[in-house]
């Protein structure tokens, strides 16, 4: 069964070379940064798929390619069976585009300060000539704000309320898929809980599908039906939250879970992980994680592991399933 | 009893504005002993960074300390002249800020920045300063420290830069370290490295630390004692196991419960309704009462009981341990 979203062999390479003239004078080669490398996954309708990874792992780049803000270098993104990269019929593209919306990280930067809330929220509909009578008021109530708020400006709202406005705007065109790029990272915990609960409720009410991008494992564990772990642009493991957190199959996943601070762990003495994410313009050979991996052997240096089924999920590791959580008590 | 390294007595900070005086820090008292890490948590606007800045005398005008005392090893430092304060800052109080890139001078090598700080505060020769700088970098876990002395900040990754900033804060061997969101800009695996480093350094040097953060997980793993702030006031202070495990102030309780980690496996997160009030519009009585699930009449008029220097108290008329039956 293919899902609402089907991503195959998605790759994105950025040219990060110095300017042409510098390259000629200093005789430098071109420098290419592979932000996303051969990533494939499906998102079934009405589920939440979460992408986690550290900075530079390519999670936001994937999000941007899914909504069409960036073109993939290779591979394709199919939404509802239609590949937005190769599709040329404008009518079909337009129809699919109304099905996708995005919520960004910073609610202060993603709302136009000179527009009234009503105009901001209804823009996805009014831009296509749709009927916007009472739409803003209806959506504001749905996201827990008041109808009167439609006449206000964004600066009159707090961070959490602004993120609610972003959610309302994303709902306006009645999308099927919402890509959320770190939607609560800029919010305080008590407000984060409000926004996450709101997003769960709306998912039920509207039958939404989320692609949820976050660096916060605890948030992802709470929200996701399936979690994909990214390392250096590669999908290293995919599993349900329960199996991922209880029995991570990839050593990087285990390292992330061990490193994440826990509430019940005061005075916990765990050896912190070693090393940092390598330079993406010059990734290690074979498995990208091998220089930091406790299980690495010769094959890891030579051969890039493929994403293969492991239990109910998938994992890309030559020694899948051999890791143990350090903090497990 | 030995003198605590840092003691705040009824510290109050005021910001006069055209629309009246705002009070971002209101009557806060606590102490930190040598070798102890005090975690200060709260949401944005709770006054935690303001408290840190008041201690090191870096309040931006027109904010100023309008009442109370700051004592460093028993000596008052809140009334010092600017020049005297400069001698304390860096020497006796080290500071680590959130963003490691903006805390370093991009035009100087890290060796120059470290030796400059050492030469300013300690009476040593240039060669000795360099040797100390290398030792400092070694101690915070920078590999081949000697060769990295000539490197510029941009040549380091975020985690390595934060290590350099910590080395810089510690190079004059301060007795108190103030770390304001030291790991917020870092990835989880690097964050674990930095918090482990801070813990080790405090233990080895017997240094007191004030760790300001909004991340409950970091606090739970790093701090010995925790102070919870709300709307400029101290809501609760106590040992970390108690604050996390058996909070008594309803705000602490809500804060802990709303972190996704605490409610793993539950369909919904527990949420605190509403948001923190703006400083200009603080409600009467206990600042938390409009959001409190256990609010009673007394809370609407009487600000909560004061939390004094003595430990283990919650600024709440009806702390949770006294009303088990209500919940």
UniProtKB/TrEMBL annotation, chain A:
Keyword flag GTP-binding: no
Pfam family, one: ABC_tran
Domain ABC transporter stretches: 11-257
Membrane protein topology class: Peripheral membrane protein
Listed GO CC annotations: plasma membrane
Location of the protein in the cell: Cell inner membrane
Protein name as annotated: Putative D,D-dipeptide transport ATP-binding protein DdpF
Organism: Jannaschia donghaensis
Biological classification of the source: Bacteria, Pseudomonadati, Pseudomonadota, Alphaproteobacteria, Rhodobacterales
Gene behind this protein: ddpF
TrEMBL record, chain B:
An individual GO BP term: peptide transport
Main location group: membrane
InterPro entries documented for this protein: AAA+_ATPase, ABC_Ni/Peptide_Import, ABC_transporter-like_ATP-bd, ABC_transporter-like_CS, Oligopep_ABC_C, P-loop_NTPase
Location of the ABC transporter domain: 6-256
Gene3D superfamilies in the cross-refs: P-loop containing nucleotide triphosphate hydrolases
GO cellular component: plasma membrane
Name of the featured protein: Stage 0 sporulation protein KD
Lineage start: Bacteria, Pseudomonadati, Pseudomonadota, Alphaproteobacteria, Rhodobacterales
Gene that produces this protein: oppD_3
